[in-house]
Amino acid sequence: MSTGYLLRRLAQVPPTALVILVGTWLLLHLAPGDPLVALAGQYGDEAYYAATRERFGLDQPLPQQLATYLGNVVQGDLGLSYIRGRPALAVVLERLPATLLLASAALSASTLVGTTLGIVTSRYPRGRRDLAIRAVSLTAYATPSFLLAQLAVLLLAYRTGWFPVQGMTDARSQSTGLLVVIDVLHHLALPALVLATTEIALNVRLVRSGMVQVSRADFIRTARAKGLPERRVVWHGFRNAILPLITVIGNRVGMFFAGAALVEIVFGWPGVGRLLLSSAQTRDLPVLLAIFLVVAAAVLVVNLVVDILYAVLDPRVRYE
After folding, report:
1. With left for phi above 0 and alpha for psi between -120 and 50, is residue 31 left, alpha or beta?
2. Residue 258 in contact with residue 99, Cβ under 8 Å?
3. Which pLDDT tens digit goes with each residue over 240-265?
4. Of the ranges 146-160, 165-179, 266-280, 289-303, which one carries the lowest mean pLDDT score?
């Protein structure tokens, strides 16, 4: 990977983040509805409305509000929550670890399981095992996450009692140390499985198609003709077939956060998703903007890492 490619790719991050921030700000502020009505009710005191608008700068023209907001963001100030009266960034960061734990567990599980099943199915294309895995993966991919979550709660929590229904820990538990970690993992398993299911299906199809295509390449036939062990032949093919998967994983990070919001609501997971829902209901704009900004920053960083990793794995990649 050349230094020029890395520098040019880094230079794309600030303008992209600015476009996302300005676009999100305009969409939220131009949307119908007054945040003060959600805060004080439709028949609140006019003096209270005026004082609150002045406190949060809502009495200023929109261009001036946007300029003030951008200036504050540069200094690390994302504003005060209308509802909580605290810095919006601090409110979001309190919930972020739970969402990152859920999303990273689902991403790891979907990548590991999807890649393994994709390799297995590619070894016997059009066989019974291949057809069965493809049928199940297609069904899983076509099923919405909220429906999967409801089925999982009904079958694996209520009926069998294998997993907790809601929450991140058992509120009645007095456990400490390692037992707390086990308790969190027990509560994490079901929402992470639901969130990973759709991605597993997508990864199976990507790895399978890539491995089947690579298996017909000349370098694979040459490797077999040289008498290399089959596991090394599979590894050579996998290194080439995994490139599209890396790109897709990077692009799907944003979808993981969106899916995590729905899953968090169903399972009562105390992450950013539930905060997003409550903030949208109360039109708490500073918190909404802080959530979108944090998620956008995460997606930009992950995509930057993916592009760098792609260039390392495939030296033919150049920035034009």
Report:
1. beta
2. no
3. 777 777 777 766 676 677 677 778 88
4. 165-179
* Token digits of residue 28: 């939220």
pLDDT digits (tens, 9 = 90+) for 77-120: 888 888 888 888 898 888 888 888 888 888 888 888 888 888 88
Compute the distance between CA of residue 223 and CA of residue 233 in angstroms, rounded to an integer: 6
With CA atoms as reference, report the closest residue to 265 among 206, 191, 184, 205. 191
Q: What is the pLDDT of residue 224?
A: 79
Query: Is the separation of the CB atoms in 167 and 187 below 8 Å?
Result: yes
Model pLDDT, residue 229: 81
Query: Who contacts 232 (Cβ-Cβ below 8 Å, separation ≥6)?
Result: 223
Taking CA atoms, 176 is separated from 95, 168, 183, 296, in Å, by 21, 15, 10, 35
Other CB atoms within 10 Å distance of the CB of residue 74: 8
C-alpha pair distances (Å), 140 with each of 129, 147, 156, 201: 17, 11, 17, 6
Nearest-CA neighbor of 259 among 168, 151, 167, 144?
A: 144
Give burial (CB, 10 Å; 0-12/13-18/19+) of 103: buried
Looking at residue 120, its amino acid is V
Q: Which two tokens stand for residue 246?
A: 């890396």
* Dist. CA 64–CA 70, nearest whole Å: 10
Taking the CA atoms of the chain, what radius of gyration do you get in angstroms? 24
Model confidence, pTM: 0.76
C-alpha torsion 278→252→31→63, nearest 10: 110
CB 232 within 8 A of CB 243: no
